[in-house]
């Protein structure tokens, strides 16, 4: 085909032109409608997504309550059932000691002997004074008796005043003899303290002296005891119970006692008495328990841990520590109502277990508590619940 070949001209009728224009207008309109509709749908979806993102997602947990009973574990101090520090009642030098620490003793066993040369001399002097006083009293008695006989047989030869004078002298001499006797008894009593003896069956838990040591009488009991004897067949256990749990502990209740030196082993203790008063500085009451210790495994003055079984009525509800909110309104937690809206509740703390907190008031067992509530959360806000139901469940046990 040559360059000069011309295509045949196409002549469209006016009717066809109008039809083509109409079709083009419809297509263009459809494109516009589709574009506008798409933009509206996208804007609506964006608005909906924005609204959804504005609703925070939270993790919830229901308060954990005691089931029947729960342990209340508290630190305690153990002491010997009877503890007697042995002080010197007389001065001298320690002549010997017979029982060392750890020795089992019976009541009356000699622990040590004090050499008392000064007291021995005082006792000899006292005995001599007593003998002199008795001799003077005997002579005064003989003289008074003679004057009484003379007054009776010959009233004119002896005056009544002389008889009364000799009777008075007898009474004074007898009083001196009694005083001398009391002094001798006192010195003998002090001499008896030269032997240090065990006051009861037990164990020697301290010896703070040695042979030749200078011993000074300690009547005030403020110095260092020479020996200490303790009855460790039973131990007294002292524990301070918080005020909120005090009404739940009664005399005769049993508790479980454990000590660090015997891991995994427990001992049974029984509540013996309690102070029935609250210490203002600590808000606790002192409770005394007794634990049998026939084999001497438990050591007096040592640390122990006592676990009481407390009824559920005396216990509060536990929530994770992350649920607590403390601000200018006080201490409270965020909970959800039936329509998943936030409601803040004020609470009080009974005990802090670290990961969990025991709440004394403000919550009920079916409350849904928000864990780690986001900042800016306000009362009445709507929230969504996270899908992981285990996220905020407290696992910490006392």
């Amino acid at each position: 085909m040559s360059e000069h070949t011309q295509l045949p001209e196409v002549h469209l009728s006016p009717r066809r032109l109008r039809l083509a224009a109409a079709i083009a207008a419809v297509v263009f309109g459809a494109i516009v409608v589709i574009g506008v509709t798409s933009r509206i749908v996208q804007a609506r979806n964006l608005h909906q997504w924005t609204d959804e993102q504005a609703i925070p997602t939270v993790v919830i947990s229901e308060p954990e309550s005691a089931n029947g009973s729960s342990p209340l574990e508290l630190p305690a101090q153990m002491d010997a059932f009877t503890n007697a520090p042995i002080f010197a009642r007389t001065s001298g030098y320690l002549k010997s000691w017979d029982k060392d620490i750890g020795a089992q003793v019976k009541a009356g066993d000699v622990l040590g002997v004090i050499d008392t040369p000064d007291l021995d001399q005082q006792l000899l002097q006292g005995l001599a004074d007593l003998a002199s006083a008795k001799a003077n009293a005997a002579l005064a008695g003989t003289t008074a008796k003679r004057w009484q006989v003379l007054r009776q047989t010959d009233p004119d030869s002896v005056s009544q005043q002389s008889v009364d004078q000799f009777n008075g002298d007898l009474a004074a001499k007898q009083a001196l003899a009694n005083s001398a006797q009391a002094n001798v008894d006192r010195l003998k009593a002090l001499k008896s303290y030269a032997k240090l003896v065990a006051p009861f069956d037990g164990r020697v838990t301290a010896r703070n002296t040695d042979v030749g040591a200078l011993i000074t009488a300690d009547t005030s009991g403020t110095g260092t005891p020479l020996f200490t004897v303790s009855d460790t067949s039973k131990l007294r256990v002292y524990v301070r119970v918080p005020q909120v749990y005090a009404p739940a502990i009664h005399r005769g209740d049993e508790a479980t006692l454990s000590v660090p030196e015997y891991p995994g082993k427990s001992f049974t203790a029984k509540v013996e008495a309690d102070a029935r008063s609250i210490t203002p500085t600590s808000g606790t009451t002192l409770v005394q328990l007794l634990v049998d210790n026939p084999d001497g495994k438990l050591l007096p003055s040592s640390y122990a841990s006592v676990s009481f079984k407390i009824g559920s009525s005396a216990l509060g509800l536990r929530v994770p520590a992350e649920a607590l909110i403390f601000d200018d309104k006080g201490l409270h937690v965020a909970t959800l109502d039936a329509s998943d809206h936030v409601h803040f509740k004020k609470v009080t703390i009974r005990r802090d277990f670290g990961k969990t907190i025991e709440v004394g008031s403000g919550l009920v067992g079916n409350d849904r508590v928000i864990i780690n509530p986001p900042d800016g959360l306000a009362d009445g806000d709507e929230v969504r619940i996270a899908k992981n139901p285990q996220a905020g469940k407290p696992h910490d046990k006392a």
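DSSP finds three helices and 21 strands in the chain. The two ends are 103 Å apart (CA to CA).
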